[in-house]
Amino acid sequence: ATAMQVTLRHGAAFFLLYVPLLAALVRPQMNFSIVVDSFFLSADYSATMVLGHRFDTYMAVAAAPLSALTVYALSKWGEEEQLDGLNTQKMIISAVAGVYVIVLVANVLANGIVMQHALMRFDQCPRKAWKMYGEMAMAFVKSMASDVSSIITLKKVHRPRLVYRLH
User: Fold this and answer.
1) How far is Cα 29 from Cα 111, in angstroms, rounded to an integer?
2) Could you tell me if 68 and 19 are in contact, meaning their C-beta atoms sit under 8 angstroms apart?
């Protein structure tokens, strides 16, 4: 077996696998606020949800090896090797790629379902959760880019809040 030469293509592939995996591992944080404005015998109710995310360092640490291993495995797909070991190698590569996809999809589904349940508590359409989850994931990716630019420019970054009116 020869050592793998890491190329710019491998780095780009790692980045393209790592960022979506990080976005899937981020946990939604929902803060609900209920306001009741009463006047004599009537009351007006208002509920809002502020959607943020929780990101722990272990998520970045856990996502890096899985993304790197997936890039390494997929880079081996096209290599010519002995015919008898080819099927075994392709099964291993498929298994590694499958684990990556399972981790990604399982986290997205778990987070989306949690958000659906929270919205149903406030008599909201559970399908709204998927749009909100997508907006939260994109806000996380944008915040990662902003964090990098703030390190370079030494300027503080203002993070927008995702606020949704429920009632």
Assistant:
1) 10
2) no
* Position 116, amino acid: Q
d(CA 167, CA 165): 6
Phi, psi of 79 (to 5 degrees): -70, 140
Strand order in the sheet with 162-165: 27-39, 42-54, 162-165
Summarize pLDDT for 39-93 with one digit per residue, the tens. 888 888 888 899 988 888 888 888 999 999 999 988 887 665 555 566 788 888 8
- Identify the three-state secondary structure at position 99: helix
The enclosing H or E element of 29 equals: strand 27-39
**Unique residue bearing structure tokens 């208002």:** 46
User: Which of 113, 118, 157, 139 minimizes the C-alpha distance to 52?
Assistant: 139
